[in-house]
Amino acid sequence: MLIGGAVRNYRLARDEGICRRYPAVARAVLAGASGQIRTQATVAGNLLQRTRCPYFQNTTTPCNKREPGSGCAAVAGVHRDLAVIGTSDACVASHPSDLAVPLAAYDAVVEVRRPDGAEWTVPIHDLHRLPGDTPWIETVLEPGDLVTGVRLPPPPAGALATYRKVRDRWSYAFAVVSLAAVLRVGAGGRIDEIRLALGGVAPKPWRLWAAERLLVGTRPSDDDVRAATMTALADARPLPDNAFKLDLAADLVAAVVRDLRGAQP
Q1: Pfam families, per this entry (predicted)?
Q2: Terminal C-alpha separation, the chain
Q3: pLDDT digit string, tens, across residues 209-258
């Protein structure tokens, strides 16, 4: 399925084909921003939105994204809502998109047109760059590139999927931690296929590849799922005030996997 880059978010969330085949996408869009913003926001704009780090927005404080080489005030400042994995000493900002998270779980591909008319594609997993020493370079796009659409491959046959968002208030709040999960269960409750992507924890949607490999073919308990999640987050570099996100992510994954397994026919 191809979704145009200029499609408004509210139309995407109401599309019958999206709701039926890619329910995690519809849920993520409805969990993001407000109804008024969703009527104006676009698919491409959602994926390319800038960080909501308060030090990026406050021009009186150092920020390597805004002014390269000036430093990252968040490391020693207010960082509760920022990233715990994929960060660097130069930047700990998290990516704010809800939509990008289920697109990562569905292995979406982003279609791009260059100024000379040439077209190319990039997997959603490779669209956003980790900060490293150049946090001001946020994507692999070049100046003048235009995101024309997002292509979703067919979902796994017989799988269930959802998006769940933990936030500080019910509406119009960015994720503390969010999860898009796609799960197909076989005989006896064995997991035949699983895809897990986290939001709110990294500078990009964070796919839990290692956890998926550990869980496929098993009948996991909640503790098994938590352990697999923590293995996938082993490279995390939390700061003092956001280390809780690791346990929260593990609990969220365990709860969602349990619920999806229980919902299988």
Answers
A1: CO_deh_flav_C, FAD_binding_5
A2: 26
A3: 999 999 999 999 999 999 999 999 999 999 999 999 999 999 999 999 99
Q: Please tell me the total count of domains within the chain.
A: 1
Q: How confident is the model at residue 193 (pLDDT cuts 50, 70, 90)?
A: very high
For residue 206, give the CATH number of its domain.
3.30.390.50
235 in a structural domain = yes
Residue 264 pLDDT: 73
Do residues 203 and 223 lie in contact, with contact meaning Cβ atoms separated by under 8 Å? no
Residue 128: pLDDT band with limits 50, 70, 90: very high
17 in any annotated domain? no
